Amino acid sequence: MASEQSSGQKAVAGPGRPSVTVRFVQFVPLGAVVVMLLDCATDFFPDDPVESVVGIVTPARLALILGLLALIAPVPGRARALLRDFRTRLDLPIGLLVAAGAVATYGGGHATAPLRGLLTVIGCYYLVVGLRRTQPESWRAIGIIALAGVTAAATSAFSQVTNETPTGFCRTGLLTDVACDAAGDGVLIRATGTFANPNLLAAFLVLLLPFALLAAVCVDERTARTAIVVLVVVGYGALLTTFSRAGYVAGAAGLLLLGGAYWLAPRLADRAQRRLFAGLGALALLAAAGVIWAVSRAGNSLGVRGQAWEAALSLSADNPLGVGLGRSGAVISATAPGDRTFVHAHNLWLNWLVEAGPLGLLAMTAVAVIAWFSAARAARAKSVIGTVGLAALSGFFLMSMLDHPANLDRIDVLFWCVLAVVMAEAPATWRRRPGAAPAPVPAQLKRPRHGPQRVGVTTAQVPAGPSFRQLSGHPA
């Protein structure tokens, strides 16, 4: 009996299976990402700096530090992450962004807390990149996390609407803002979900809903996939309860991209046909946006944004180094006419121009352009991660033209995590040099099966993400 137990233990701890220590160290980065993304959805970590663990180390930053250390720590039996595993096409723009933020902060003698926040979200970016590069199968976990986050925020939003819970935000008629205490039969509550503002909830759903579809690839059984699709539909329904006009346009853009890539593109062999349908889709989106803004009588809303944009441009001319990170709302409120209080510039890129000057604007523009084109290239190669990333980023960038949801730390963390998932799918450079290592995007994955998994598979044999055949249930 003792000999049988001994042989069984040797079989379990054989060369094909990692040790308990290796498996634990591999889990820590993924656990850190789970904690960060669930905090984005539910805000279960305290926001007050007084609640920090040690000094400026908050619970979220502690999870981030532990995740990064686990990636690079040398552990016997496991290849640790190397510098090349963290390299992406956004390294130079990120460096410029940090430099611009540091110059604006220290040059103007402002508080350093916003700069630490910027370094935190960039740390989240490289944590997700390192996780995706060292553990290619982690795309499954990312899909499940996205579905969990969408479910938490969406069900909370529906609960507010069905129970008529006051949120402080109401609309009536054709998406016209009204005071909630005005009562009346036509007043509709704008759901905020787990956020303080319906526009923030809309931005969260626009960013995460496409990634929730990855959870459908993780299961074989049809009814399980049906349940996942139902939860995604609930998420899009929650987007409707926000009554966010920009959210509607952004969500529609994401759905058009997802539907076009999944159903339409494979049926269009001619490039001219694909361009024609892409153009028609863009025109339809612009027409829908125009109709929404017209029937909702959005003139006053756009007028307020116009005041913010005019003040932002005036401030940028007078402050070439920026007014300091996190200070755009205060200085715009002091510059714009009237007594309205602004929190930000109502535009992602103008906000960076005000806070970090032209260098910050250049860096953020480069981040957006490089990330979008990288996602488009991956989507063109039939990558599901590239396609959902393209849908998420396109919708978010559309919203960011009229709003700045990334001004909230939780949305900012989610935005950089989405960037990381997309950029980890692409090589660090646009063109591979002769004799250089191949791109970190391996071949497509076969459909997963339940039961024992193969062991001893090298990283080069494991793909970075699923294919469209896998999503539709066909073998690769």
Question: What labels would you give this structure?
Answer:
single chain; about 475 residues; mainly alpha; three-stranded antiparallel sheet; 3 strands; about 0% strand; disordered N terminus
Describe the model.
The protein is an all-alpha fold. It has helices at 2-12, 20-42, 59-72, 83-86, 91-107, 113-134, 138-162, 198-212, 222-241, 245-264, 271-295, 299-318, 328-335, 348-380, 384-400, 409-423, 468-472, and strands at 170-172, 176-178, 188-189. A 3-stranded antiparallel β-sheet has the order 2-1-3, with no helix packed on it. 41% of the residues are buried.
Would you summarize the structure shown here?
With 476 residues, the chain is mainly alpha-helical.
- Content of β-strand: under 5%
Total count of helical runs of at least 4 residues:
17
Number of strands: 3
Major β-sheet profile = 3 strands, antiparallel
Radius of gyration based on Cα positions? 23 Å
Q: Report the structural category.
A: mainly alpha
Write the layout of secondary structure elements.
Blueprint: H1 2-12, H2 20-42, H3 59-72, H4 83-86, H5 91-107, H6 113-134, H7 138-162, E1 170-172, E2 176-178, E3 188-189, H8 198-212, H9 222-241, H10 245-264, H11 271-295, H12 299-318, H13 328-335, H14 348-380, H15 384-400, H16 409-423, H17 468-472
Antiparallel strand pairs: 1-2, 1-3
